[in-house]
Amino acid sequence: MTARKFSHRFKYKPLNKYEGLLGKIVCRAPTTYVGVEIELENVSLKYSSIPSSFTRIEDGSLKLEGAEFITIPIKVCFLEEELKRLFKSLRTSYTSSRCSVHVHLNARDLTSEELKKLLLLYCIFEKSLFHFSGNRWDNIFCVPLYSYPELVGKMLMGTTYEAEHLVGWYKYFALNLSPLWGGYNHESAAKLGTIEFRHMEGTTNTERILTWINLIISLKIAAKKLDLTELIENIKVMNTTSAYYWLATQVFGDWETVITSQKTFQADVEACITSIKCLFFNKENPLEFRERLAYNFNRKEH
Asked: Which whole-number Å values give the CA distances from 149 to 120, 124, 144, 201, 256, in the listed order?
């Protein structure tokens, strides 16, 4: 039986058909839809309005004329020019520790198995991703998953139904899954069909934002491409530097040096891999992680 995508299980609003100007920065998957939220303070406008691809809202966590600018769902190939248009429309703005950039990745076309592979890959590289995005792991609105390994384990080893209805997902996790199905008991978040990445510090650097999005999209591409059994077997035996670099290349492609050039890359991935191994492979009398995943994926989805 063909695995059901989330778009087949939930009713989402149609994606926006906006067509804009193509940017010059290379995009890994140009037609992938994303949504971006830009938080800034000391905001004043040069003109009477901002680009129509953005909505401005007030955010109580921001001070000093703070504002949040939210894109429509947009293909990433058009995002560069839209961001430049937004930033050019601002007379003044600056970023503080209160500001951040959130990225919503379209995940409607994922199956539950692909979602769990994405989550597993994310957990391996979580520390490296935090280092690139601005080291916000002490922020209460961007909580790393490695602080809650048992919750991640329940999500990975449970059925889709259990994950959505019994586990719950904290909306301030750095990787927020709540928008995909509407949050715990379908009440704590809008049902958008997206995965939210809350990591990035406040910035108006368009190239840096696009690089971050390319890393995020790479996780989705790898989740669709990599075989689950092979991935788990690789994790079980992964204990060498060369293996860490190999996996980074498999996941991030041409963007792997953004991750692997970090001075702490080896130590970060080693720590994350060790955590995953301890969680899934070192318990007394457990079902093998692979067997539990296969069993739950084959159970009838709710």
From this structure: 11, 12, 10, 24, 25
Q: CB within 8 A of 23, min separation 6: which ones?
A: 77, 78, 79, 80, 81, 84, 210
Q: Are strands 90-94 and 100-106 parallel, antiparallel or unpaired?
A: unpaired
- Please give the backbone phi and psi of residue 192, each rounded to the nearest 5 degrees, phi first: -105, -20
Three-state secondary-structure class, residue 130: helix
H or E element at residue 210: helix 206-225
Could you tell me how many residues make up the chain? 302
Task: Report pLDDT digits (tens) over 75-94.
Answer: 999 999 999 999 999 888 87
Bridge partners of 71, per DSSP, are: 54
Residue type, 90: L
Distance CA 66, CA 203 (A): 14
CA–CA gap between residue 34 and residue 292 (Å, rounded):
32
How many helices, marked H, and strands, marked E, lie in the chain?
Answer: 12, 8
Q: Please, are residues 175 and 123 in contact by the beta-carbon 8 Å criterion? A: no
What is the phi/psi pair of residue 103, to 5°? -120, 125
Question: For residue range 235-272, what is the model confidence (pLDDT) as tens digits?
Answer: 888 877 788 999 999 999 999 999 999 999 999 999 89
Q: Are strands 33-45 and 67-71 parallel, antiparallel or unpaired?
A: antiparallel
Residues contacting residue 149 through CB under 8 Å, at least 6 positions apart = 275, 278, 279
**Tokens, residue 289:** 């992680």
